[in-house]
Design a protein that fits this description.
This protein is α+β, with helices and mostly antiparallel strands. The longest helix has 34 residues, at 360-393. β2 (72-81) and β3 form a beta hairpin. The chain has helices spanning 2-7, 29-47, 110-123, 154-157, 165-184, 212-217, 224-241, 265-268, 274-283, 301-310, 360-393, 405-409, and strands at 67-68, 72-81, 84-91, 96-104, 131-137, 140-146, 152-153, 197-199, 205-207, 419-420, 424-428, 452-453, 471-490, 497-504, 517-524, 528-548, 551-552, 561-562, 565-572. The protein is globular.
């Protein structure tokens, strides 16, 4: 069931799909509501087999086992709607599951689907489900995309109830940040709903169908940024309340009561986080009208990201530890060792000591232990006498320094250093495209001949804050650790490399740098960098962030320019 839900796209939802897309004639809040009702009726008609106009094109005769490009073997049809179909398939060349959208080449939307897929593929942002191929062949147009069997739709996550506060905060932070990056590249979603938002097993939120889902359904908007921002507000509203913020039911969620207007989430359900409730209302802005009484509405994903950054950071819940069952505890662990009766006047049984060793081996062992005790006593007596004599010889030395318990407590002796294990890593993408996310594991594989590298930039050595403020990798230490230093092997020297360490709450790129804790920074012109932490902070996730890169000549893998690469990295604590 979970695998089925992650394969289908929102185009498969034909039971009360809401329109988050703003219409061109949208002039008042009432007009918005009427457009939503009309679009919902259209979707229901399409779901029951009704088609209109050019969408009457018949889908090609396809079946399980059919191959596209002698490579993609169709396995299961998950959607057949509006003249196109969506399939779960297998890429036989790379031996992995993929998803495929297929429509006839003469379909009215075939050209726009191809263009949207190719634009989305160029973005290369790992926060979006990636388009892997977009082809026109044999009178067919098909788009191949990632298949995430370990991910779960937001629709499924909300079935048992609303999300926890921290999960809702992570969801809106990551989705808003991802959509802000997409809009900076001129890409909109326009079909952002609970079916299009997925959470992976690692806790990362991902978005599928960027630009493609809208092209498949013919969705357009004169105000795409506002459309996507309102959609994010609706997602947050649903995550906090398990209700859809419109009158119609959709995505398995009940709508709001009719004729009462938009109610703030903290008025719909008790215990809703006040700040997140306010944030959802600021995003659910219709023509500048919002139910928020204190703050201005957010009409672009960038404004929403800024509003999230201004909120007090919501920290993850503390892990709960449960005591082991009583039958696993020893008498000492249960706290009865060496104690008197729990209640006066009540006699408690005294544990019977084990019987003495009576065998021949036991007798030999007793004699050996006795001999060792005698030797230890003799050695201790000799050392004590020697110490007393030495103290007597130095009694008149007024400069003698004595060590006390207080001195031991205040000792400045260095703590033992240990190498911290790295359990995983992921690129941190603040803006624009990722660097080489598939190579992050090469930075801690104990092989200095392999490395992760950045792209090659024309300007430098300091990176352009407006275009690309920096590049880096977030490392997962598996549990909270006190990091004291980071030793980084670099491929290129010259000019100067500037690297900074940050403690962060997750591996997600949606966490802004302004909400992280800076641990330390260093500049170097060599091929090594050691970042020392003045005041160690406990954190599970550590970001290694480059804001300046040296100039290096071109090679087999990249052109000349300002660039850097990490060959190996080690954290100590």
């Amino acid at each position: 069931m979970a695998e089925r839900s992650t394969a289908a796209v929102d185009v498969a939802d034909n039971s009360g799909d809401e329109p988050l897309t703003a219409k061109a004639d949208q002039s008042t809040a009432d007009g918005v509501a009427k457009n939503r009702e009309r679009d919902t009726e259209d979707v229901e008609a399409q779901g029951s087999g009704g088609t209109q106009g050019p969408e009457k094109a018949s889908p090609p005769e396809l079946h399980s086992g059919h191959k596209l490009a002698r490579r993609y073997r169709l396995e299961e049809c998950v959607t057949r709607l509006d003249g196109f179909s969506s399939w779960r398939a297998v890429d036989e060349k790379l031996r992995r599951a993929v998803g495929v959208h297929i429509l006839p080449a003469d379909h009215a939307r075939a050209r726009s689907v191809l263009a949207a897929a190719r634009s989305s593929a160029l973005l290369g942002d790992p926060r979006f489900v990636q388009v892997l191929d977009a082809v026109e062949e044999n009178d067919l147009v098909y788009v191949v995309h990632e298949w995430l069997p370990d991910a779960t739709e937001l629709t499924t996550l909300l079935a048992p109830g609303p999300l926890e506060v921290y999960d809702a905060y992570q969801m809106v932070s990551q989705i808003a940040s991802a959509m802000a990056a997409a809009h900076r590249e001129g890409l909109a979603h326009l079909r952002l709903n609970p079916n299009a938002v997925l959470r992976t097993s690692s806790g990362q939120w991902r978005i599928r169908g960027l630009a493609v889902n809208a092209a498949l359904r013919g969705a357009t908007s004169d105000t795409p940024q506002r459309t996507d921002t309102e959609a994010i507000g609706a997602l947050l509203y649903a995550a906090l309340t398990q209700r859809w913020p419109y009158e119609s039911d959709a995505y398995g969620l009940s709508g709001l009561p009719k004729d009462v207007g938009l109610i703030a989430p903290d008025q719909v359900r008790a215990g809703v986080h006040r700040g997140l409730s306010e944030l959802s209302m600021r995003a659910l802005a219709n023509d500048g009208a919002t139910a928020s009484r204190h703050e201005t509405p957010c009409t672009t994903p960038e404004e929403l990201v800024k509003a999230i950054g201004e909120m007090p950071r919501i920290r993850p819940p503390e892990p709960s530890f449960t005591a082991p069952p009583d039958y696993q505890r020893t008498t000492y662990q249960q706290g009865t060792y060496g104690r008197g009766p729990a209640h006066p006047g009540i006699t408690q049984s005294v544990p019977t000591p084990p019987p003495p060793l009576q065998s021949r081996t036991g007798k030999a062992l007793k004699w050996a232990v006795s001999a060792l005790l005698i030797a230890a006593l003799g050695l201790g007596s000799w050392q004590l006498a020697d110490a007393l004599m030495d103290q007597g010889n130095k009694a008149d030395d007024t400069g003698n320094t004595q060590t006390t318990d207080e001195d031991d407590k205040n000792s400045t002796a260095p703590k033992p250093v240990k190498t911290l294990s790295i359990r995983g890593a992921q690129e941190y993408v603040a803006t624009g495209q990722a660097q080489h996310p598939a190579d992050v594991g090469k930075t801690y594989d104990s092989d200095s001949s392999t490395y992760w590298r950045t792209a090659s930039y024309k300007d430098g050595p300091t990176m352009n804050p407006a275009f690309k403020p920096g590049v880096g990798i977030v490392y997962d230490l598996g549990s909270e650790e006190e990091v004291s230093t980071a030793s980084i092997g670099l491929l290129f020297g010259g000019d100067h490399t500037k690297v900074t360490l940050y403690a962060t709450d997750s591996m997600s790129s949606s966490v802004p740098l302004t909400s992280m804790t800076k641990l330390g920074s260093v500049k170097t012109t060599g091929t090594t960098a050691k970042v020392s932490v003045a005041k160690p902070v406990k954190s599970r996730y550590v970001l290694v962030w480059f804001t300046a890169l040296p100039y290096a000549p071109g090679d087999t893998y990249s052109n000349s320019g300002y660039k850097q690469a990490i060959t190996d990295l080690k954290f100590t604590g």
